């Protein structure tokens, strides 16, 4: 950009298991149909074009199957901040998904991954849920950060545009962490889909993002709605 700013694109968890085809273990409604949008964004001159992958071991703590009597989507999981026991991150338990080495863990087949400059894996530590592409909840290095912040800073990135899956989980936590890292952060709303697409949830997520300094933008809707 002419004003000395440098922009990156982050495509979050655009993986087969989040795709709404019959094989998607954690299918997000409308996810597959976003692939042309991601691919179009990948053809723009972003200085860094990265994607993240949820990359779980078979026995990951976020899988309901690992907890006796727990049900995916309705049971919750508590993760304590090792630095502050009072600080508890409560989240949802999931069906098994994005297991390393399975097809579900691969990028969606039509996704233009050859255009990526960087591919980042996250969620490998079986003890901790990791939604953000940057690292664990509380940005606590004890659970292992990813290389995402280093990659962006090394390239001199100032602005980050975030798309992908899912809006209220990995996209949201990545965007909030990006602001904390000092990036001017945008979520391209029509490049993301939520697990819970109720208006009530979408409104709450938008507000949380805005309260944390994330800018929400729409790029494609007008054209698509013609
Ligand atoms: C995600 C649920 C579980 C995501 C990852 O990519 O948003 N959601 N793991
Ligand atoms: Zn996951």
Structural overview:
This protein has 226 residues and is an alpha/beta fold. It contains five helices and eight strands, in the order E-H-E-E-E-E-H-E-H-E-H-E-H. The chain has a six-stranded parallel β-sheet, sandwiched between helices. Strand 7, helix 4 and strand 8 form a beta-alpha-beta unit. Helix 3 runs parallel beside helix 4. The longest helix has 14 residues. The model has no long low-confidence stretch (mean pLDDT 93). Zinc ion binds next to loops. Its EC number is 3.5.1.19. Keywords: Hydrolase.
Oligomer: single chain
In terms of DSSP E residues, the strand content is: 15-25%
**Class based on secondary structure composition and strand pairing:** alpha/beta
Radius of gyration from CA coordinates: 17 Å
Give the fraction of residues assigned to helices: 10-25%
Low-confidence stretches: none
Task: Pick out its properties.
alpha/beta, 6-stranded parallel β-sheet, two-stranded antiparallel sheet, 20% helix, globular, binds pyrazine-2-carboxylic acid, binds zinc ion, hydrolase
Fold blueprint:
Layout: E1 7-12, H1 35-42, E2 48-54, E3 76-81, E4 84-92, E5 118-122, H2 148-154, E6 159-165, H3 167-180, E7 184-193, H4 199-211, E8 215-217, H5 221-224
Bound molecules: pyrazine-2-carboxylic acid (VGL) and zinc ion.
Put the structure in a nutshell.
With 226 residues, the chain is of the alpha/beta class. 20% of the residues lie in helices and 23% in strands.
């Amino acid at each position: 950009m002419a004003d000395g700013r440098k922009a990156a694109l982050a495509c979050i968890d655009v993986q087969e298991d989040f795709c709404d085809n019959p094989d998607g273990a954690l299918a997000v409604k409308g996810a597959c149909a976003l692939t042309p949008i991601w691919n179009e964004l990948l053809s723009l001159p972003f200085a860094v074009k990265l994607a993240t992958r949820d990359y779980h071991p078979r026995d990951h703590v976020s899988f309901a199957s690992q907890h006796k009597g727990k049900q995916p989507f309705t049971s919750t999981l508590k993760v304590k901040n090792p630095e502050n026991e009072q600080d508890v991150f409560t989240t949802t338990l999931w069906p098994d998904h994005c297991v390393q080495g399975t097809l579900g863990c691969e990028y969606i087949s039509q996704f233009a991954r050859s255009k990526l400059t960087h591919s980042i894996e996250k969620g490998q530590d079986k003890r901790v849920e990791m939604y953000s592409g940057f690292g664990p909840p509380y940005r606590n290095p004890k659970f292992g950060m990813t290389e995402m912040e280093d990659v962006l800073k090394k390239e001199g990135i100032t602005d980050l545009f975030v798309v992908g899956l899912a809006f209220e989980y990995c996209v949201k936590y990545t965007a909030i962490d990006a602001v904390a890292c000092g990036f001017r952060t945008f979520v391209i709303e029509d490049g993301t889909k939520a697990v819970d697409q109720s208006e009530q949830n979408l409104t709450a997520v938008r507000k949380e993002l805005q309260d944390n300094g994330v800018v929400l933008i729409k790029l494609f809707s007008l054209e698509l709605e013609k």
